[in-house]
Amino acid sequence: MTTLFTPARLGSLTLPNRLVMAPMTRNRATADGVPTPLMAEYYAQRATAGLIIAEATTPDRVGQTYPDIPAIFNAAQTEGWRRVTGAVSAAGGRAFLQLQHGGRIGHPDNSGLVPVAPSPVAFPDAIHTPNGPRPAPVPREMTADDIGATVAAFAAAARNAITAGFAGVEVHAANGYLLHQFLSTHTNRRTDAYGGPVENRIRFVLEVVDAVVDAVGPDRVGIRIAPGVTANAMRETDVEDVYPALARELAARNPAYLHVVFADPESPLFHGLRRLWPTALIANPALPWPTPFPADGGRAEAERLLAAGADLVSLGRAFLANPDLVDRLRRNAPLNGNRPEHWYGGTAEGYTDYPELAPVPA
């Protein structure tokens, strides 16, 4: 019987368990996007996860979303991530790095540049900046040259991630960021080869994935999708058309995994994706947000997803507050409570100071 603690294969990796630490923005990098020693400590504390997917990291300057977000487009950033992967490896862990371009989710106060997007459709809410919340600007519609440069930036970032010691990268095509924006007719109003019919709207995602696979190999690439998820004011009206078509094309590239956000084990779409997908399927459960949060940290939902066909399950907030989450779940021990006031930015408080269980006596 497969459980959360059964070893698994993912690409060329053997994972000691099926619990994945989901990528979660923590805003602890420097203003220049360089990961800090504190980040290395944070990830090393959580190295007992079967796999860590490190937080959203921008592949180029214009893709920056918020202040103090890590990046991986220059040598200093790459070296900062090398310190993180070294700490994780020394603690016995394995990590992929999520590559995320914000698209319209950005602001000149953060990146120094006007954001770019499929179409000039502004994000309707405020963007967090060093100067406080600011209205989101109307993004500049990407030209063909912009699209080509962005695809190349993802490939270069993937190469940098492998140089930095990551086992692979996750292409973020979810949660309302740039690649997701291309998939939706709400944010993609183009009339060229990247807009209109489904086969056009999925084109940019496929071009990014192709470039990343060419750069680092398919067994080092995962893709994250969020069918119908409304994060960052996303709207999708043809989920049942877009995501099977996207999954079929992605599956032909044979990447290491598909990571489905807010997966519903009773959804026909989830089961359809499972049938289409030839390699590992990571499912992220739809848990209450922000509160109440289940006392079991999402274990019951994780087990339901495994039973429904997921190979691995990603958990977020449970890993934030419990660096030893795998051990706690294995021992059916109580979980630490989260401190949401420390989720985004700050010091070690609410980041690396959560207590761990005492070891089991020999």
From TrEMBL:
Its EC number is 1.-.-.-. One of its GO terms (molecular function) is oxidoreductase activity, acting on the CH-CH group of donors, NAD or NADP as acceptor. Residues 4-336 form the NADH:flavin oxidoreductase/NADH oxidase N-terminal domain. GO terms for cellular component: cytosol. Keywords: Oxidoreductase. It holds the Pfam family Oxidored_FMN. The keyword Oxidoreductase applies. Its cofactor is FMN. The keyword Ion transport does not apply. PANTHER family: NADH OXIDOREDUCTASE-RELATED (PTHR22893), NADPH DEHYDROGENASE 2-RELATED (PTHR22893:SF91). Belongs to the NADH:flavin oxidoreductase/NADH oxidase family. This is N-ethylmaleimide reductase. It comes from Actinomadura namibiensis.
